[in-house]
Amino acid sequence: MLGSTHGTLTTDSRRARIIACGEQRPGPAVHGRADPLDGGDDGAGLDVSGRPLYADVPDLARFFRPQSVAVIGASDAEGRPNTGITRQLLTWAERVGARVHPVHPARPSVFGVACCASVADLPEQVDLAVLLVADPLPVIEELAETKVKFAVAFASGFAETGAQGAEAQERLAEAVRRSGLRLLGPNTNLNAFERFRDDLEGPAIALITQSGHQGRPLFALQELGIRLSHWAPTGNEADLETSDFISYFAEQPEVGAIAAYVEGLKDGRAFLLAADRAARRKVPVVAVKVGRTEAGARTAATHTGKLTGADDVVDAAMRQYGVVRVDGLDELQDTAALLARARAPRAEGVVVYSISGGTGAHVADLAAGLGLRLPTLSPDRQAELHQWIPEYLSAANPVDNGGHPVGDERGRKIIDAILADPEVGVLICPVTGPFPPLSDKLVRDLVEAAEATGKLVCVVWGSPVGTEPAYREVLLGSSRVATFRTVGNCLRAVGAWLDHHRFVSDYRSPFDEAPRTPSPSFRKAEALMRPGQQLSEHAAKQLLRAYGIRVPREQLVTSAAAAVRAAGQVGYPVVMKASGAQIAHKTELGLVKIGLTSASQVRDAYRELTDIARYEGVCLDGVLVCQMVEQGVEMVVGMTHDDLFGPTVTVGLGGVLVEVLHDAAVRVPPFGEEQARDMLAELRGRALLDGVRGRPPADLDALVEVVLRVQRIALELGGHLAELDINPLMVLPRGQGAVALDALVVCR
Predict the structure, then answer these.
(1) Which CATH topology does 60-184 take?
(2) How far apart, in Å, are the Cα atoms of 553 and each of 2, 137, 577, 633?
(3) Would you say the CATH fold of 633-747 matches that of 60-184?
(4) What range(s) does the ATP-grasp domain occupy (predicted)?
(5) Is 747 in contact with 650 (CB distance < 8 Å)?
(6) What CATH number does domain 349-506 carry, 3.30.565.10, 3.40.50.1000, 3.40.50.261, 3.90.78.10?
(7) Is the pTM of this model over 0.85?
């Protein structure tokens, strides 16, 4: 039995325990004072490690709608690449009402517009400078004197080419920092200056791409009646990056969703802050992030020169802040379009309605497999539907009308009856192919019903042709029906839409409650740090104790006689382990003895452990005599550094299972108790914690508490620690707590 008990903790009592061990109580949510996102953070804008808590949003209005533009390196000579770019910029500037000042030392005019010989000769302070030069660095230095707000560099040959190019890009970035202007690029393109349709209404999609070609399918959505408002082709991101544009777009009232194609993130923390801003504003962010595989990550790095972080960390970070991650451009456009235009759901139930039982069953299976809820319609609702649907057909969900009712007044009545059900928030109708005139009337009924209800109506138009009037004119002509070409994209988009609204409805930013000042625990733990070294198990457990993480009763001894005395005080049976700063795998070296029940066994174990250590050349600070803890579920909780996001916290099945199954979940601090519990829900071995084969349920509250305490260590000591690994953490039966049986700590 353990020497102390650990009762089940409520949220309040858990926080009280954390505060008692030296933590600070999270600050209150922002109520009754200025929103920190609008500059009212009262000076508390840094966390305990000195990192910002809120995104710095650049004012990009004058970038996208400048009043004056300088085109440096402008040309009208036929056959020159700069000529086509200059022509497009002149057309774009006329459309947005901007004055253009071509700059060229050897040309009096370009396309009839008078040229300036140099940047110094510009007749006014310009909002935007477009650099059509091979080496933008000297021009950036010249522009610093003119107080220009923004610049765009198209030139390539920077970080995407390797180490030498990366050095050139860093010199460019440093010049930009000194100049005070903001730079888009290098290695970018003209996508920001495309012609956007101004005859479309409704919420718009704002687009961010690092590779301009990948944005073409989304830009073409305008031809389907879906509005786009901005396109930011970020290129190599020497200065302005994806995160800047997410933060800016989240503030624009016309933006209904942000769609991003991301090859690599420049700054993981900046991305989290930007995603947090979008979540606060309830603006959905949908992203393709390449690099799921080693090959994808390698290709992305060569294309943009970015450091691609471990993909499981990227995935977790996106989920933490509600970013919808999709795999393909077709899914990106369908999901972004739905999230931008669809209203908040009135209910989460999904009904599949079709003219074919086989089609309905297939779509329903796919929907259920993706986690969508398909409620069985009530007996009364089914009886109502069977007024118009033959009795032998299903009206439960999926609903099969048999085909003929769509050709007369019954079709609209069926749709209205389904949408009237209070459990139904979404109606999905797959049309596998056109069958006029019935299909024409079906889609008209769906459009009219969608206009009359606040619920989501989705149609999957399965025809590979796509020129049918029912599709081109009726479905695409409706702003209320969401039209898809594939069932998979439809179902995933609907799932993302439901998830987004569920997420933002109760979103509370973890940055609002992130600690601002170090706890008393920090000072105790800081004294244990040994830069560049690994701590002994004894020192590592002292660090855990400082943060209130429970460890077994144990004593560090340096003689066999002391070991026997310690065993009597700890209580038999005991475990004995060699303790030294450079011992990473004690079991493999035979430096662990378990289940010792007598003084003679303890003496023999001490001599054997010290003999092995001498033979292996391992320096010891002593031998640990530890309480033996057996009844529980072995877990691992740890902290490590991700190249992009910094300290990350991981929880998973412990012992040897962590190496065999790799069953773990990760989060990026800061995060709250709900996210910690979500981590446990993600584990494939989660059932072990609930109790299997007659074993009692484990103390989940205690496990969550350890995860949160390790997070506090990560927040306060992240700059000192390269790695922290509690393995195994023995999670005892409910109400009895969790005990860190072993710990590895490596200092930076």
Answers:
(1) Rossmann fold (3.40.50)
(2) 8, 63, 13, 19
(3) no
(4) 541-579
(5) no
(6) 3.40.50.261
(7) yes
